[in-house]
Specification:
Helix content: 25-40%
CATH topology of the largest domain: Rossmann fold
Largest sheet: 7 strands, mixed
Strand content: 15-25%
Number of helices: 10
Order of helices and strands: EHEEEHEHEEHHEHEEEHEHEHHE
Number of domains: 2
Radius of gyration: 22 Å
Shape: elongated
CATH architecture of the largest domain: 3-Layer(aba) Sandwich
């Protein structure tokens, strides 16, 4: 069963990280943190009223900034929004409604997803009067909270979980085997997907997105229905922003959770890297069946010991090697 995703968004300095940490760092809601795929916790699995979901923290959203870092962060927040089943729009009650809040509200309205406006820094009863100003965002009734003092967070989560899907699937969908193709950029994921679909020539239609920032394509082999999920690659940390890598992990996680089998793709011309180990850790934690596919095998010189040597080099990434040994198949 998929865990629904709840994204926390808002402009800088409204208290998103404090709010996130209050929920996932205390016993009021936390089940367990998503294990070590990034140094900085960007998402965690949580529970409220017996409903499990994944809470996603995001960087501050500044719709008008031309700063390179903020532009990159804005793109990653948009990815988180696309991935989410519900959105908590955090605003600053002490500052009041700002033009940036209105711009973010317009962006969220276009998603047609459930949005709960959380007015932060409402630390006492006297501050409650400030909440009414945020009706002007046009996103329904705002709720006053204090992330620092945990005031109103329970009532907020009560409303949020009402918007979450059950996470189940109907009988017809459950009969379709879902295959996620994951890996670093440029390892050949899309080429493999196209080759599978092109050779079988039984593609029904492309289904873009499904709010998961991936491409779902149904196909059929020998009368059996499948769904193949092509995903964006896990990026390495960049000098621009680690958020690039964090959110690519989130995209991969969403695809892995939905699938039945993972095709983990490697590039034979490149050494096994940290990003490969991170993807492997996601697969292990989700308990998915996996096949390692070593692509571009034709581009390297080979002899009797080539595969043995490749495995020896893979031992350099301990986490990945442990996962490799648990896989049912390795295909060069």
């Amino acid at each position: 069963m998929d865990k629904p995703i709840v994204a926390v968004v808002g402009r800088p300095n409204v208290g998103k990280s404090t709010f996130f940490n209050q929920i996932v760092g205390k016993r009021i809601s936390i089940v367990d943190d998503q294990p070590g795929v990034t140094r900085d916790r960007i998402y965690a699995d949580a529970e409220w009223l017996n409903r499990r979901f994944t809470l996603v923290d995001t960087g501050g959203l500044d719709p008008e900034s031309d700063d390179e870092l903020l532009v990159q962060m804005r793109r990653q927040v948009e990815i988180a929004i696309d991935t989410a089943d519900a959105i908590i729009f955090l605003v600053d009650g002490q500052v009041g409604v700002t033009p940036a809040d209105h711009q973010i509200a317009n962006l969220l309205r276009k998603t047609r997803k459930p949005v709960v406006v959380a007015v932060n820094k409402i630390d006492n009863f006297e501050d409650e009067a400030m909440v009414a100003d945020f009706f002007s965002l046009g996103l329904g009734e705002p709720m006053g909270i204090s992330a620092v003092h945990k005031r109103g967070i329970g009532d907020l989560l009560d409303r949020v979980v009402k918007y979450l899907p059950d996470g189940g699937m109907d009988e017809e969908e459950d009969q379709v085997i879902k295959i996620a193709v994951v890996g670093r950029p440029n390892v050949g994921k899309s080429s493999l997907v196209n080759r599978i679909l092109g050779e079988e020539r039984v593609i029904v239609s492309d289904i873009p997105g499904t709010t998961r920032d991936a491409i779902d394509t149904p196909f059929e082999v020998d009368g059996k229905e499948y769904l193949i999920i092509d995903t964006a690659g896990i990026r390495r940390k960049s000098r621009i922003s680690e958020a690039l890598e964090r959110y690519s992990v989130l995209r991969a996680l969403a695809a892995i959770r939905r699938c039945d089998v993972v095709l983990m793709m490697l590039d034979a011309t490149q050494p096994v890297a940290e990003q490969d180990a991170k993807i492997a850790s996601l697969v292990i934690e989700e308990g998915k069946a996996a096949v390692i596919v070593v692509n571009k095998w034709d581009l390297i010189e080979k002899d009797t010991y080539t595969m043995e040597e490749y495995q020896r080099r893979a031992r350099g990434q301990t986490g990945f090697w442990n996962w490799w040994m648990r896989c049912t198949a390795v295909i060069p």
